[in-house]
Here is the input.
Amino acid sequence: MRKKILIAEADFDPGAELEALNLPGAGGIASFTGTVRNDTGNLAALHLEHYPGMTERALEKIVAEAASRWPLLGCTIIHRVGRLTPGQRIVFTAAASAHRQAALAATGFLIDWLKTCAPFWKREEFKDGASQWVEARESDEEETAKWK
Amino acid sequence: MRKKILIAEADFDPGAELEALNLPGAGGIASFTGTVRNDTGNLAALHLEHYPGMTERALEKIVAEAASRWPLLGCTIIHRVGRLTPGQRIVFTAAASAHRQAALAATGFLIDWLKTCAPFWKREEFKDGASQWVEARESDEEETAKWK
Amino acid sequence: MTKILYFAWLREKLGAAEEDVELPKNLATVADLIAWQTTRGQNFAAAFGEKNQVRCAVDQDFASKTTPIAGAREIAFFPPVTGG
Amino acid sequence: MTKILYFAWLREKLGAAEEDVELPKNLATVADLIAWQTTRGQNFAAAFGEKNQVRCAVDQDFASKTTPIAGAREIAFFPPVTGG
Here is the structure.
């Protein structure tokens, strides 16, 4: 299985990532891209912090778990860190398989697990200069629990 | 809701399509790309035929159904027709929403319904010159039925 | 006159993508029309015979065997769809 | 010496991202270590107090309250994760 795990400050190119997953035998490639929302209009940026070393280990485990559940030909997780402004991409998960159900299910699994099983933390920076750490959402835990 | 429905011989750019769905308020953008597989190694090409006029109506209905089920900000269906060789893109479905579950579920819904509720037909052209219409798969009907 | 369209292997078997037909007045439903088609010669009998699962659209909406065809302007026959 | 890491608001509250600590020999589990942390001053008491849901990793694997810490080289404390 082709595997790509990347944690970086730099932006990535979803089109190029999808192209890289167009592997021989892959009939379906699914992807999820998460971006910085700004529902209130007050957000200046999100700051993404992570635990270098552990993050890579955690993402490797998540990818291995996905590969054990579905017949995947390729799997990609990209997560950005640092300061990201509204509209910018934060995270990308994608999977390629011979069949669409596996590709779609694995993509959903990767993002659900990433949200609860990888050491990333978000801090909101508001336009007035205030700042606040984002609290974990119970619904994310529930989405992960549904896979267990 | 931003809506794009396209039936064309020309290829499309998944990266550009994802970018176009990065709409204000969209926290998650999911996509599915279907490509021409060549499991046996004997396939020269797939020929995609459709029912002009009805196809557009059918895809409009599928998109409207998706929009009635999930709070979508954008929805894209692209389906190519004509002669397509192994590895080439055939179909693309994508959805943008404030939340990831809606984007992922709608993307899966769009491709499941498209496979059973839109008038496209595939003919396989083999390397030895033989040709054969692809038969409908019962499993596709089942995938659609699960949404009903 | 009613426009009748054929797609995929139906089009190939019948050697026609489209025809304008004066339908007998006594055809009420899609099932009636299919039965009538089988009487139009060997090609039609083979294409519309029971062992073939022919699907139908009436005025560009998927139809069932019991869908009425009165007033229809465009009726299409085709195999089960295989797109995506 | 054991390396202890702090992330997110824990790092900010404690004013440290990393420290090397000689842990008391009687600390067997993560729960023991958290209890000991609360005794290390006001900042620590506030950060590791019961009302805060501090999470822990031992040698870069998520740990629970009952995870043993004997032999651990790197222990990290952080709030519930919020990536993705």
The interface with chain C takes residues 34, 48-51, 53-54, 57-58, 79, 90-91, 111, 114-123, 133-137, 140 of chain B (CB under 8 Å). The domain at 2-145 of chain B is CATH 3.90.1170.40 (Aldehyde Oxidoreductase; domain 3).
